[in-house]
Amino acid sequence: MILKRKTEKTNRSHKVSEIIRKAISEVLVKNELPLDIPFELPINVVKVEMNSDLKIAYVYVVAHEKIDETETISKLNTCKQYLSREMTSLINLKFSPKLVFRNDKSINEITNIEELLRSEKVLNDLKQIKS
Predict the structure, then answer these.
(1) Mind giving me the DSSP string for the chain?
(2) I need a labelling partner for 72 at 20 to 30 A (CA). Which of 31, 47, 62, 114 fits?
(3) What digits encode the pLDDT tens for the residues 92-113?
């Protein structure tokens, strides 16, 4: 018999993910990461998702600099220990989750939708509806 893990999010996982998001945001806003070339602008934490046993935190971030998304994630991964230590000092949980950084794609989707809405075809259709 194969057991599947529950995929629905519990109230506890929402609370923990929000606590972790605030703590990581607080650390990243200071922009004191141990990097050779630091970020020019602070990085925003868009959301944090926890797995079912609250051992892994998937942190979705957005950088406002003109650098490659993979470079942002690699820089964050190099100072993962520092971020984890600082986050643990700010939160009060029994276990400190493992951090996994990912790029947030929702902002790219929003800009694509805005571009579509501003296209000439959509504007022409709107003019025809108004007429």
Answers:
(1) -PPPPP-SPPHHHHHHHHHHHHHHHHHHHHT----SS--SSPPEEEEEEE-TTS-EEEEEEE--SSS-HHHHHHHHHHTHHHHHHHHHHH---SSPPEEEEEE--HHHHHHHHHHHHTSHHHHHHHHHHH-
(2) 114
(3) 888 889 999 998 888 778 888 8
Q: Which residues of 65-103 are buried (b: 16+ CB within 10 A; e: fewer)?
A: eeeeeeebbebbeebeeebbebbeeeeeeeeebebebeb
Helix axes 80-90, 69-78, angle to 10 degrees: 70
What gap in Å lies between CA 98 and CA 5, rounded to an integer?
19
Six token digits for residue 57: 């935190």
pLDDT in tens, 33-82: 888 777 777 788 999 999 888 899 999 998 877 778 888 889 899 999 99
Which tokens belong to 100?
């996994």
